[in-house]
Specification:
The complex is a heterodimer. Chain A is of the alpha/beta class. Helices cover 42% and strands 21% of the residues of chain A. Chain B is globular, with a radius of gyration of 23 Å. The model of chain B has no long low-confidence stretch (mean pLDDT 96). Classes of the chains: A alpha/beta, B alpha/beta.
């Protein structure tokens, strides 16, 4: 069985990168392949990379409120193209109320500032295997 | 753990005694406040002195909304203004760039034109208060200079500062989308420009705060800061700018994390190191060149999303340490920092914390109150030794510019942040509410309503900018941008006169910067969304 492939990226002008890199390393250490697209990505580029690289999960780092606006666009693009790739968000600005709203929009999992980060690999694995 | 250590790894004894300061030569190593090597303070102690510039980091939405924040803080006793740009502004992009529109005004103020600066400072007593800028420095300097002139305020009397961050900005949270050579040139050019036109303004504010908040420890914070200071001082003197003309206007913006005595020792050691360096290595003679101005922020990194009220306490103890260290200005990171730019409630709490420390504790009555303490002096010596050693090690590895381009600093930042996260995860660095004394989300409600309040991006700025572009004189803008391009391509002429003229002609920061990027062979627009007008 090939290793799971996870895209890690950051939306818009959000300049924070530490969290995204730390999660990428964490997933790599858990035996996954990380497709690190980095900062300054807009939804069409993320969807294209997800398809080109055949990823199992899309992971996005959110340390600015831009995700509030880009997420709808991203989910719509995935739906239009019939792609059922789970989307996971993680970041300091994601409150418990945000998490509920995001899950209602179809986001598969949300990791906020009070979440247990050590659970991220297991959650990603579970989502990928459930596809 | 077998041995107690300071946060940066200095072994600590259970108690310090006269034996720890046995060789301390008072005149050579400490001396009175206001006397070389300025360990105990940059100014002579007087009974009237005491206190510091009190400001709070501001900026949200439009320039006018940010101006209202300034007025609110000044009305409640702030003695300075400290402004930070939103994400597009900090990326040197215009708000109507399609990649920027969802980020306009949410993490700071949106600024890209001369009239934005005029609105930002509108009605502020520029002759009385200091204006500190966490913004693209050349534009902040040009914007303040032109706004003051338009109001009939002599730029020669302006006070305040602009952070200069050419070395580490791309590695810890900022992204200018510019090559190092251009970042450095803009820093040196704008310092040189301000030295002539705004001689009381600290156009060379070395920002070590964000180095420390990037996870580096106090020794690394100051070592990297000194590497940058030394590099820029050498660049300026190489150009023939006399060291005593600009050195009095170098300031350092330090962080203050939770290891209070280490932070106090760091600041005292920094004053001593700076004085010695400027006198012995760079030949400065004016006493004002040797006595460095230190401004400060309490640490955003140490604040937590859990139990936000605890952040009020963290801000207070850090600010007390800064007051004891004798800094010239303090900003307390607001209790909702983990979530958003400061709410009015958090702004006021931070300002009131400063006022309470200043007015009720009597800590400002006596200069350097910890001077002579066995522990503090031993720790100050050790911090000084370790900082100097790390500066020498980095400079010994080669040209710092090459280290920067090669990603050496980037790796340092990345590893430091992982180290910090690991220390918290493993409980080695206690964090109340995070890895000790936790409570459930249901119980953790105090101040959460304030901290979690969101607001919309400033979309009206986008429409306003598009209309502004349509209505301005295209010929004047085109000529100014063409000149900007020509000056950029000389690679040596000072960029500031053309930059100032372009702002005056109605060009925007995104356009002016884009033309400079293109002059260095980089894309005009890093997102490829807009075309160069020239």
């Amino acid at each position: 069985m090939r290793p799971l492939r996870v895209l890690i990226g950051t939306l818009g002008l959000d300049q924070h990168e530490v969290g995204a890199v730390a999660v990428a390393r964490q997933l790599r250490d858990a035996g996954m392949e990380v497709v690190y697209v980095g900062r300054f990505q807009l939804p069409p580029a993320i969807v294209k990379a997800a398809v080109d690289e055949a990823v199992d999960v899309i992971g996005l780092s959110c340390h600015s409120w831009e995700y509030l606006y880009y997420l709808d666009e991203l989910m719509a693009l995935l739906r239009e193209r019939g792609l059922a790739i789970p989307v996971v968000l993680g970041g300091s600005v994601l409150t418990a109320a945000d998490a509920r709203a995001l899950e209602a929009k179809g986001v598969a999992a949300v990791f906020g500032p009070t979440s247990a980060v050590e659970d991220i690999p297991a959650t990603i694995e579970r989502l990928a295997r459930a596809r | 753990m077998t041995e107690r250590q300071s946060y940066s790894g200095i072994p600590l004894k259970p108690v310090y005694t006269p034996a720890d300061v046995a060789g301390l030569d008072y005149a050579a190593r400490l001396n009175d406040p206001g006397a070389y090597p300025y360990t105990r303070g940059r100014r002579p102690a007087t009974q009237e002195a005491g206190g510091w510039i009190q400001h709070e980091l501001s900026g949200e939405g439009t320039p006018l909304r940010s101006n209202a924040q300034f007025r609110y803080l000044i009305a409640h006793g702030a003695t300075g203004v400290d402004v930070i740009g939103d994400t597009p502004t900090m990326a040197w992009l215009d708000p109507d760039n399609p990649a920027a529109v969802h980020a306009v005004g949410t993490q700071g103020v949106s600024l890209c034109r001369l009239e934005d600066y005029r609105e930002l400072y509108d009605g502020l007593p520029l002759d009385r208060i200091t204006v500190s800028h966490s913004l693209p420095a050349p534009f902040a300097i040009a914007g303040l200079y032109l706004s003051a002139k338009a109001r009939g305020v002599d730029p020669k009397g302006l006070r305040g500062s602009a952070i200069q961050v050419p070395f580490y900005c791309e590695d810890c949270g900022y992204a200018t989308h510019m090559p190092f050579a251009l970042r450095l040139r803009l820093a040196v050019d704008s310092i040189e420009f301000a030295t002539r036109t705004m001689p009381k303004f600290h156009a060379f504010l070395e920002d070590t705060y964000y180095i420390s908040d990037g996870g580096l420890d106090a020794v690394e914070e100051m070592a990297l800061g000194f590497v940058e200071i030394r590099y820029i001082v050498r660049e300026l003197t190489r150009r023939g700018v006399p060291v005593d003309s600009f050195a009095p206007r170098i300031a350092i913006l330090v962080n203050c994390r939770m290891d209070l005595f280490e932070e106090i020792a760091k600041i005292r050691a920094t004053r001593r190191l700076f004085a010695r360096m400027l006198r012995e290595e760079f030949g400065a003679q004016d006493p004002r060149s040797l006595a460095v101005n230190i401004t400060s922020h309490t640490s955003g990194l140490t604040l937590t999303a859990q139990q936000p009220v605890n952040n009020v306490v963290r801000g207070a103890v850090q600010a007390l340490a800064l007051a004891l260290a004798g800094v010239q200005a303090i900003e307390i990171s607001a209790f909702d920092e983990a979530f958003r730019t400061p709410s009015p409630e958090a702004h006021l709490t931070a300002l009131r914390t400063q006022q309470t420390i200043q007015l009720e504790t009597n800590v400002t009555g006596v200069a350097d109150p910890l001077g002579g303490a066995y522990y503090v002096e031993a720790l100050t010596d050790e911090m000084e030794r370790r900082i100097a050693e790390m500066v020498a090690k980095i400079e010994g590895m080669g040209d710092p510019a090459a280290l920067c381009d090669g990603g050496w600093f980037r790796a340092l930042f990345q590893n430091a942040m992982e180290r910090y996260a690991r220390q918290i995860k493993e409980g080695r660095l206690p964090k109340v509410g995070v890895n000790v004394h936790r409570m459930s989300d249901e119980e953790d409600t105090l101040l959460r309503d304030v901290a979690e309040r969101k607001f919309e991006p400033c979309r009206e700025r986008v429409a306003e900018l598009r209309e502004f572009r349509r209505a301005r004189d295209p010929r004047g803008v085109g000529d100014a941008l063409s000149r900007m391009r020509r000056v950029t391509e000389t690679k040596t002429d000072n960029l500031m006169p053309a930059l100032v003229a372009a702002l005056e002609a109605g060009a925007t920061m995104g356009e002016i910067t884009g033309v400079m990027r293109a002059g260095y062979g980089h894309p005009y627009d890093p997102f490829g969304m807009t075309e160069s007008p020239v």
